[in-house]
Each structure stands twice: as structure tokens, then as C-alpha cells.
Amino acid sequence: MPYELYYWPSIQGRGEFVRLAFEDAGVPYEDVCRDPARGVPALLAVLKGQEAGLRPFAPPILKHGDMLVAQTALVLHYVAAAIGLVPKDPAGRLAAHQVQLTIMDLVAEAHDTHHPVGTNLYYEDQKPEAERRATGFLAARMPKYLSWLEDLVQRGGGHPVGGAHTYVDLSVFQVLEGLAYAFPRGFAAFEPKVPGLVAVRERVRERSGIAAYLASPRRIPFNEDGIFRRYPELDAP
Amino acid sequence: MPYELYYWPSIQGRGEFVRLAFEDAGVPYEDVCRDPARGVPALLAVLKGQEAGLRPFAPPILKHGDMLVAQTALVLHYVAAAIGLVPKDPAGRLAAHQVQLTIMDLVAEAHDTHHPVGTNLYYEDQKPEAERRATGFLAARMPKYLSWLEDLVQRGGGHPVGGAHTYVDLSVFQVLEGLAYAFPRGFAAFEPKVPGLVAVRERVRERSGIAAYLASPRRIPFNEDGIFRRYPELDAP
Predict the structure, then answer these.
(1) Which residues of chain A have a CB within 8 Å of the CB of B90?
(2) Average pLDDT over chain A, rounded to whole?
């Protein structure tokens, strides 16, 4: 059965965590909304509940046979065992899912640095609030999340879970890339404190499927419509 | 093997979703931090990684044998099949987990109405921002989430998932109670639009385990240290 990913076609966003998994595993998937013949209307139809399966609240959404799976971490949990990106034992799968859920919390907080007052307002209408929130994010929240992840890697033989490469390694790569894009000064200042995560990131970057993907037009560049946005006024001084 | 819940002892918070599941199922659990002999230090030890198992980032945390499970929705996913609160088929479990994850996103946004700038600041230091965020929450985000849940209930024969009582029904009860506590005017104005959710809430309230729990001292009242806080200036006019 083919894997169909429904996600916004012009940003990395939360969909990127799913794209990285398929690209790393070398498993074909259709990035539905990037097909000009289908585009965003195909996603909107799913969000309106016009497809069989549980009507999802938000993308990314994976369609696989008659299954419709939403929530980024759950999509990865659903697909990872089948494509070889997580141990098959229940405890190992649970551990990976738990860490991924916490990574998604970090991602949500990174997003809220530029949208603290509301996703339904423009960034330009919440700039002073964004500067306050970004300051706290760089000073307290990002260090708290990354130090916890670093501790997992230090305890886990160089991987966040299971002592082996999983989709969580890919997500560590994506989060570190995103933070470095959004906060070049703030992240660079903190980076020396998480050498284990940096090693994970560099190892992921060199994996054959990921290296090929990053060099391809399938990898959408970071931009200011996504989750990780480079607004210099939000970065550390 | 006993179930041990590690959560803050003086608030409902995210731990309440787990408490409700055990209370409804009539399954004994130890609310560890409410035992004066153990208290909050027991939670802090787990957070520091001093227990066997995956070191969690934040509570609620469930200890079960040598398993340590964090992330509210994942705790419910882990425990629900064993205590009879979810269908045993994989697709049904996945659907319940997906809906619960989205409910937790709603809960996070409800929290952020009083802490839009940062969890590490006092509410008093972010009141104007909180008023802006609460306005958007009541006008757009709460209606979007609850209308989606209402649609699931309308399609699902009176239940959000699986056409039967699950832990997701309990979470609908908790969210509606919390929103009504935090936003008595704003929620009352919207409530007539979600009759299916209201029916779920009232049915849950009358279940024997839940009714006994709500009448007991084990149910901590809502208060202004929790997720759902009654700040009249954040409510609708």
C-alpha cells in the first residue's frame, strides 16, 4: 500500500519530520500537495472529513490504505516499525514515541516565539511579545529541552533511544538545524553544551538517504512561513 | 504490578486525565506525591533520572514495574487497554490516541492564555498579553477544537472514538469542566453549539466511579495554580 503524506507544500514545518523518515529509510511516499494535479485542495478535503477514516484536526496526515493518521509523533510511531526506524519491541517503540512527543513540545515552543499571542494574528502584530517570549525561550526553555535530550544521548550510547539509529535521531537533526536557522547567535552560544546532540546531527547529515535528500529539490529551504523563522530581532544579541 | 502516578499534589493539571481514567475503571493507583511520606521529592527524583527507565522530561509520569511512561496522552495509551478504557484493536487504539493528542494540544493552548510570554514568568508580568491571547482563544481556537470534537461525536454515535465509552470521553468531560471554570461567560456562550460534547460530559459525570471520585477529597478543586485558571479579566465580556 502506498504512503501518502498530506502537508503544506511550501514549508518544512511539522511535515518535515515525516519526510525525513521516508527519505532516510529509502521508502517511496507521495508528497500529495506538491503534486500540481492535487495540490492543497487534496489536503483541505481530508481536513473537511471527506476521506474515509478518522477526520484529522491538522496536518501532517498520513494516508495508508484505509488508515488516516495525524499528529506528527503518531505518524512516526505508526510508520517507523514498518520502515525499520525503531526497534520492534513494545518498550523500545514506547520510549521512542515518548521522546518524539517531547521533541514536538519543543517544536511548538519554538513556533510560539514568533506567535506568542495568537496563530491567527500576523507576526508584525505581536513583535514586542515575540521578543519577550524568544528571550525566555533562548534563556530557559531551549536549554532545558536540549539538556534533557543531551542527557539521554549521553546515557544511551550516542543515541537518544534504544542505543541505535531511530527516527528520533532524524528529529534531533531537524530540530538542531531549525534552531540554528532561527537563532544563529543564540543557538551557537549554546551548542558547545550539547556535544552528543551535535554528533547525532552530523551522523544523520551524512547518511546516504538524508545526504541525497538534502541535495535534492525535495528539501524545501527554511523560510519565514514555517515553524523555524529567522527574525534577527528575536535572536540573542 | 501497582500503578504509581507521579504528579504535582495540589493541582488537577495534566495529571487529572490519568486520575480520571483510574477512577472510572475502578483500578487502584498510588498518587505518589499526595502521600506525605513521599511527596514532591519522589517526583523530583524521577525527573532527575534517579529511577530505572527512560528519564522523563515532565509529569505526569506513570511507573508500572520497570516502565516509566511520561506524556499525558501516552500514559493513557499505555494503560487504557489493560484497564478496559479503549478497544483492543490497533486501529481503535490509534484513533483514541490521536484524538487524545489533539485534546492535549487544546489543553496547552488553554494554559497559554494565562502564560503567553513564558511559563517562567508570573501571570502578573504578562497580563496585557494574556488578555490578547485569551480573546483569540475564545474567538477562534476553542471553537475550532471543540467543533472538530463535536463533529467526531456526531459521526461517532455519541462518542468521540470507536462508538463506545473510552478514556477520550473522560478527557472531553475534563476539558469542558476546565473551560467552564476558566471562562464561565465565554464557554457558556459557546456551549449550545456542542450538544454532543455536553451529552458526553453529563454521561461521564454520572458514571459510578467518576461520581464517587468527584464527591471525594481525592478530586482537587480547580485553582489558580493549575492549567484552567479563573481570571475574570481573561473571560469574555
Answers:
(1) none
(2) 96
Query: Would an 8 Å CB–CB cutoff place B140 in contact with chain A?
Result: yes
pLDDT digits (tens, 9 = 90+) for B215-231: 999 999 999 999 999 99
Tell whether A133 is within 8 A of chain B (Cβ): yes
Is B145 part of the contact surface with chain A (CB cutoff 8 Å)?
yes
Distance from C-alpha of A31 to C-alpha of B128, rounded to nearest angstrom:
41
pTM over 0.90: yes
Number of alpha carbons in the 13 Å side-chain half-sphere of residue A232: 1
Q: Is the dihedral of CA B79, B85, B89, B92 positive or negative?
A: negative
- d(Cα B21, Cα B11) in Å, to the nearest integer? 17
Q: What is the ipTM of this complex?
A: 0.97
With a cut of 90, say whether residue B121 has pLDDT above it: no
The three cell numbers locating residue B61: 509520569
Contact B155 A117 (CB under 8 A): no
Strand order in the sheet with A3-6: A30-31, A3-6, A61-64, A67-70
Residue A94 forms contact with B (CB below 8 Å): yes
Residue A40 above 90 pLDDT?
yes
Nearest residue, CB atoms, A136 vs list B101, B121, B133:
B121
Q: Which residue of B has its CA nearest to A54?
A: B95
